[in-house]
């Protein structure tokens, strides 16, 4: 069954359809939080699923259920960090990083130094840029889908992807232990990103050249 079919079944009382729907997307939502919060990511996943149950009537099928669920997760993440800061009104996610908000190493699986470099670098660029890059590279979402998730215009999202990649490259260059390590990671960035999505398996050979989502240019 498609997501929409499962959702419709859930709406008429089929709890098994809801369970299958959430199980289908659990891993992606867990991945969304795990490189942004060092502790408590499981709680944020549960808050996302609970919020989805509470506001499910808002889903109209205008975007995919996956996009809708990521939008809830994005709101949960921002609320989580604002609740932890007394001066929450001054919390600017285009300037502050996940590392600033929750210092510590990523809890995501990493088998190679290139993966570690990519994860560390993502955590050290501003959170808003980290979010769009991870949705774009890991989840292979289009600019229009990401725009729906974060509530901005698609052109703004494309601009953030471009700027985010530049910030990421600069951060990776600063954190790399050797020039070779930096080149290995940046020259096959999409393949290394996909390897993290796949649970830690390093890329085999060269990248196939395919662009995730759609071209931000």
TrEMBL record:
Keyword Heme belongs to the record: no
One GO molecular-function entry: sigma factor activity
Name of the gene this protein is made from: rpoE_8
NCBIfam families tied to this protein: sigma70-ECF
GO aspect biological process, one term: DNA-templated transcription initiation
Organism: Enhygromyxa salina
The RNA polymerase sigma-70 region domain, residue ranges: 21-86
Record-linked Pfam families: Sigma70_r2, Sigma70_r4_2
Biased composition regions of type Acidic residues, renumbered to the chain: 207-217
Family: Belongs to the sigma-70 factor family. ECF subfamily.
InterPro entries: RNA_pol_sigma-70-like, RNA_pol_sigma-70_dom, RNA_pol_sigma70_r2, RNA_pol_sigma70_r4_t2, RNA_pol_sigma_r2, RNA_pol_sigma_r3/r4-like, WH-like_DNA-bd_sf
Residue ranges constituting the RNA polymerase sigma factor 70 region 4 type domain according to the UniProt record: 116-166
Keywords, in A-Z order: Sigma factor, Transcription, Transcription regulation
Region Disordered: start-end pairs: 195-217
The protein's name in its UniProt record: ECF RNA polymerase sigma-E factor
């Amino acid at each position: 069954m498609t997501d929409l079919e499962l959702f419709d079944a859930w709406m008429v009382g089929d709890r098994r359809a809801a369970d299958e729907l959430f199980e289908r997307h659990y891993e992606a939502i867990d991945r969304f939080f795990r490189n942004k919060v060092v502790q408590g990511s499981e709680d944020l996943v549960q808050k996302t699923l609970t919020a989805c149950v509470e506001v499910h009537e808002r889903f109209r099928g205008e975007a995919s259920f996956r996009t809708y669920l990521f939008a809830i997760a994005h709101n949960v993440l921002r609320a989580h960090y604002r609740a932890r800061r007394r001066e929450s009104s001054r919390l600017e996610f285009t300037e502050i990083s996940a590392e600033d908000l929750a210092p510590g190493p990523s809890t995501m699986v990493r088998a190679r130094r290139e993966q570690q470099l990519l994860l560390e670098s993502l955590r050290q660029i501003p959170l808003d840029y980290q979010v769009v890059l991870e949705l774009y590279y890991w989840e292979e979402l289009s600019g229009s889908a990401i725009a729906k998730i974060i509530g901005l215009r698609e052109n703004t999202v494309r601009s953030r992807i471009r700027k985010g990649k530049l910030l990421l490259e600069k951060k990776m260059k600063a954190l790399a232990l050797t020039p070779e390590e930096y080149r290995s990671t940046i020259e096959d960035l999409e393949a290394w990103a996909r390897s993290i999505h796949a649970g830690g398996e390093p890329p085999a050979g060269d990248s196939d050249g395919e662009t995730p989502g759609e071209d931000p240019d």
